[in-house]
Design goal:
mainly beta, Methylamine Dehydrogenase, Chain H, four-stranded antiparallel sheet, 1 helix, about 50% strand, repeat, WD40_PAC1
């Protein structure tokens, strides 16, 4: 990737990580919905897929006076549906869409490497762990893909959650069945509606669903360990940090879950927004002290964690966008928010968790659905990847502004 449009000299990131590095694991959440029957784009046809070239263009942006401009580096096209989630996976970027396709882009030139996953239902979320990719789908299943360079099929489907072994071990016992909202019975290890988000932490995969439950899966044997009736409405986003899992819901609440030793997860605390506002996204600072939730009214609310008694208090509320906040990510002291208003807000965390706007990125032609910041520094800034309902993935350079006051 050539970064010749920068205002300051920059170096390309050194991407020497393995195929899928556990340290590079990331996940993305999903927007709120009350039904799993959303309309997908038309299915893949049998026509041959043509690799799309990377398009470069300049960014119309609104940085604060005295700061460097945010730069657009590339626009990637090729998805047949709206881009729903993305993840950085070592030398690759994985992007998925409501059109059921998952595209693997190779860094740093951002060329398409391969494509997989067609026909398995709209992809809502994905995470990577070591040499495996976990994808969550609208059909309420999680699919497990193994990554191997020694095979023609580089991303090979190896299992589906819940696994057949897990299912057969429980289906005979009536006590393993629970009632769903449609008065049907399902095994407690099964999601009853679309899976909207995934998170990974300490050998576990967490899945949140529109069925209001949070399920816990063990990576080593893919067994479902717990099912928690977590919220009163759809779960839209999950994030795990410092032993705590945070779930954001359309019921307007963020709940914190944790466990002691080998015991089951229990509720540690509740962060409440407004009763009539859906919380679509949740992010946590690296030290676990600050929690931020993005709302359907365009607001971003922040809470500070009191580590001594494991409690949270609201410290900020910012009208970040004119329309709903659909996704967020954090990079150090910077928070990036993507909105249905087609813009990306760049915020810097200041004293007491307050957010100060340092810029707005324009460029998407539809709502911004997913965001991910790269841990690799590029010059005096970082790379930001965004996916939108305009079916495009865009790559931005964001400066790490300094306060010279």
């Amino acid at each position: 990737m050539v970064l010749t449009t920068m205002a300051a000299p920059m170096q390309e990131p050194v991407l020497s990580t393995p195929l899928l590095s556990s340290s590079a694991t990331r996940s993305s959440g999903s927007i709120s919905s009350t039904t799993s029957s959303e309309a997908d784009d038309s299915p893949l046809s049998s026509q041959r897929f043509v690799v799309q070239d990377v398009t470069k263009y300049e960014l119309p942006c609104k940085p604060l006076p005295g700061f460097q401009s945010y730069k657009s580096l590339a626009m990637l096209s090729g998805h047949i549906g709206s881009v729903s989630c993305l993840a950085l996976c070592g030398e690759f970027i994985l992007t998925a869409s409501q059109g059921k396709d998952i595209i693997v882009w190779q860094q740093p030139d951002l060329r398409q490497f391969t494509k997989f996953g067609q026909g398995d239902g709209s992809v809502k979320a994905l995470v990577t762990v070591s040499n495996k990719v976990f994808t969550a789908h609208q059909d309420s299943r999680i699919r497990v893909w193994k990554v191997s360079r020694s095979s023609e099929n580089v991303f090979k489907l190896v299992d589906t959650l819940p696994t057949t072994k897990d299912y057969l071990g429980k289906f005979m016992k009536q006590s393993n069945y629970v009632h769903t909202r449609r008065h049907h019975k399902r095994l407690w290890i099964e999601h009853a509606d679309s899976i909207s988000c995934l998170a990974v932490y300490n050998g576990l995969i967490y899945s949140g669903s529109w069925d209001k439950t949070l399920k816990v899966w063990r990576i080593s044997d893919l067994k479902c360990m717990e099912s928690i009736k977590a919220h009163d409405d759809a779960i839209n986003s999950l994030v795990a940090c410092k032993g705590i899992v945070y779930s954001a819901s359309a019921d307007g609440k963020i709940k914190a879950w944790g466990k002691q030793g080998k015991t089951s997860h229990s509720l540690l605390g509740i962060m409440e927004g407004h009763n009539d506002i859906s919380l679509n996204s949740v992010v946590v600072s690296e030290d676990g002290k600050w929690v931020y939730g993005g709302g359907s009214d365009g607001s971003v609310m922040g809470w500070e964690r009191n580590g001594d008694c494991v409690s949270w208090k609201m410290v900020s509320e910012t009208k970040a966008h004119h329309m709903a906040v659909l996704c967020m990510c954090m990079m150090g002291e910077f928070l990036c928010s993507g909105s249905a208003d087609k813009t990306i807000g760049i915020w810097k965390r200041e004293a007491y968790g307050k957010l100060c706007k340092v810029g707005v990125i324009n460029g998407h032609e539809g709502p911004v659905k997913c965001l991910q910041a790269s841990p690799c520094n590029v010059g005096t800034g970082f790379l930001l990847y965004s996916g939108g309902l305009d079916k495009s993935i865009r790559v931005w350079w964001v400066p790490k502004v300094e306060d010279n006051s």
